[in-house]
Amino acid sequence: MMKRLAAFLLMIGMFPMSSLFAVAAPSIDARYIIDAMDAAMEYDDAAIEAKMVNTDRLGSTSLTFDTFQNGSGDTLLVVTAGPDKGQKILRLDDDIYLYYPDADEIVRLSGSSLKNSFLGSDFSYEDLTGDDDYDERYSYTLDGEEMLDGISCYKMTFTAKKLSETYQVQEMWIDSERFVPIHVRLSSKSGRSLKDILYSDYIHDGGIFFPGRLEVVNLVKKGSSSVMTVSSARFNVGLDDDLFSKEELAW
Amino acid sequence: MVMFLLLLSLLVFDSGTVPVHASDLSFKGGADMVGSYVFDDSSPLHGAHYSAAPYLQVSYSSSALKADFRGTYTIQGVDAASSGDPGVFSLDKAYFKFRFPGLLGKRLTVTAGLAPISWGLGYYYRAGDVLFEDPIINTDAGTYAERQLWLVSINQPLGAGFNIDFAFLPALGETTNEKFGILLRKDFSATTLKEMKAAYAYALDGTHKAAIVADLFLYFDITLGVESSFSSSSDVRIVANAMKQFSLESETHSCPLTVFASSQLDFFAACYSVAGGVSFGVNDRLTVSANGLGRFSDSSEAWGLGVGGEMVLVDGVSASFAGLYADGFPDPIYPDGLSLAVGLTVAF
Question: Considering Cα of B14, then B16, then B18, then B21, what sign does the dihedral take?
């Protein structure tokens, strides 16, 4: 089963596109773009190494982490450097488990806590590990074509179907040649822009595109941003299912 | 030589297709510094207190072997003018973990040394930690108590969500009598029931302890536990915790809010305890909290109210503050009256 890595925050703007297929497409062109983007970024499983730098008015903090995802969407994230080194996060179905090595304790998170910040970044645990219900959350339209930083892009708008969504409107600029997202702007219902997500330095491996750099700029909190840089990305590597278990989490 | 070959074989053992665990030797250090003041004139703890506890940790990790060693040197004293006690070194961790091919195609894990172990459950009051002499309390709710025991333990996953653990504890450290323990746990994929554990420990002095704990999701994250040492018909301790993390959303902010309530009914000691609190993430760096605690028995009652906060200043450096007003607890757990504390934590 093909599945895109939910564990990469880029999901805020572009993940479960395959699930969006279930939504009645308002335009054949919009459907084609989503289809092409999904094809460009699909994989069976993935192993990603990345560094994240969070900056706010008081300075910067950084960490590195590895993420693994299988075809069922189970995700394991391991913090490999930084003050939280050793902390692991496992997502199985709708539950997220955290491992605290100093106490040898596994703690389950659920519900609204999934929306809380991931280790002080502008991303939430939910952003990090995907959301299986995302397919029913947005409808979308193709607005037209625009040039963005010298790249010809399709511009699309996603509108939330429920008031409970944090991001009621998402505008997405998609490279019209490679069919990968370049820029996503997240807004509230009133139209206030909340976050910009910028995708760049795409890795192209075995026909799969993956952003090598992802920057999130918090448009509400002045000077606050998170930048992730991918140092290694491997796809369709045949991950062991036992990797996505509480026993592996506690190792 | 045999030991060397054994370690070598463990180091090269890797059953995964992808090298998920690259070998990693790391050093971690830091220091916790705390200053506090107890205002109550009648308390033996009246006055200023300070402590500094630098620590160093060395860790090794690969797909088949893990090792952790951590030592802390603690200096503490009363009143800044006094010389204080000489420092005390403590070994916090010193253990190896090995993984072998086990039953049913699963990996068997063996742990040996002074290691953290968590057989129980509970956000504040806990049940199920039967290997420990006394019940464990996560006094900093949600931070999870760090306590270690000298032990040799074996974990074997059995498939279908079942796991079994065996442990042997020599009479070292806080273990006063050699002890054996067994833990059976089952993970559930159900919406409500998430996990159940049944634990039993037998000590060579003839005492034994058993517990059953469950992890549930019923709008709140709930843990329930029953524990007994079977010393009398009333020797039953029941623990319940309810916790919920909310995300307060507005157009411009998203802030985490955690509320919890916890209770412990100790029928043997005829003592009943309750605790509750709330913590709020003001922003990504600052978290503030308020907690309440009460303990009631036929002959006495005690209560306390506290506020606190923690702020990440820069990478690896955080500051904290706490204020507590308590009445009726035996010193030195919570001194009567008002006490204040500030702390600084540095990690590298």
Answer: negative
